[in-house]
Amino acid sequence: xxxxxxxxxxxxxxxxxxxxxxxxxxxxxxxxxxxxxxxxxxxxxxxxxxxxxxxxxxxxxxxxxxxxxxxxxxxxxxxxxxxxxxxxxxxxxxxxxxxxxxxxxxxxxxxxxxxxxxxxxxxxxxxxxxxxxxxxxxxxxxxxxxxxxxxxxxxxxxxxxxxxxxxxxxxxxxxxxxxxxxxxxxxxxxxxxxxxxxxxxxxxxxxxxxxxxxxxxxxxxxxxxxxxxxxxxxxxxxxxxxxxxxxxxxxxxxxxxxxxxxxxxxxxxxxxxxxxxxxxxxxxxxxxxxxxxxxxxxxxxxxxxxxxxxxxxxxxxxxxxxxxxxxxxxxxxxxxxxxxxxxxxxxxxxxxxxxxxxxxxxxxxxxxxxxxxxxxxxxxxxxxxxxxxxxxxxxxxx
Length: 398
Description:
The protein is 67% helix and 9% strand. The chain is α+β, with helices and mostly antiparallel strands. The protein has one domain (2-57, 93-253, 287-393): Outer membrane efflux proteins (OEP). It is elongated and about 135 Å long. The protein starts with a helix and ends in an 8-residue tail after the last helix.
């Protein structure tokens, strides 16, 4: 009963009023993450470029002075021309350019959503690892208390002549081994908390809130939906590539420039007006190469979308299998291994009181119980990690 009371007390320490919940960790990470801020800024920048994509080129103001010097007498025969010209895009180029920019902005938005989903998963995994490290330390601390008690009992039995020196050495070795394992558990907690602190942007972390052995009550069967941010991102890239093909085709058609101006002739004090127009001659027809290149980019975008869908489905299927196997392992520990090990402890304690077992049998069975609890923690951790990664594919409607 003494050891059971100790176990309950240690577990109770983790449920502090200052403890950090998973929802709080996710909220802090979303607010403080430089990666997500950068993704949001990139999406806003891409959206701002939509407006500039459809804007006409600036008008051009020109000035010419002819007949200055040379065979002419100074500036007496000079001609001055002031003109204003504007390039007019043809065949809906601006509309097509806007379509390209809109697709690029959508791609940036989906890329940000994908980054957010991956970052959220990373925070969940870090929270799970830190929580598991706390539970492992609890087991190691209980082990150390028992190991110290057994080592003390072995020393007293040896002084009374009821135990050999070998038994004392074995008890001491076990105690030192457990001390090393507890130290490793403390270091693991420190490392896990530092990682979680980096992801959440929080300066310090205390105990984590919530019951580590909960969270698997609902069986998750996830499916890959077309609305997944990664699929939407690559579909938008494909849409952008098609828009670039349309723009390349329209860009092969020359734009027209119209202008008007005024001319003043110094000799004779003559003033006149002029109108002019110009259009490039597509002699080298570079537009065909641009259209061909844009077509190849469409093929690449289609291939990348198909590859992303294949990889995502493979990841989903793998995570689903890992989750189901891990949940089965958790159930095995809860319903079979832990109850049987606890029953073995009871039997040894009863046998020790009746004189059928020695103290070494008590040591061994307590060690077995500790290792079984460690196995249960690792099984729960594996199931929670698989579930966290599976949530990337899961919607509440499933």
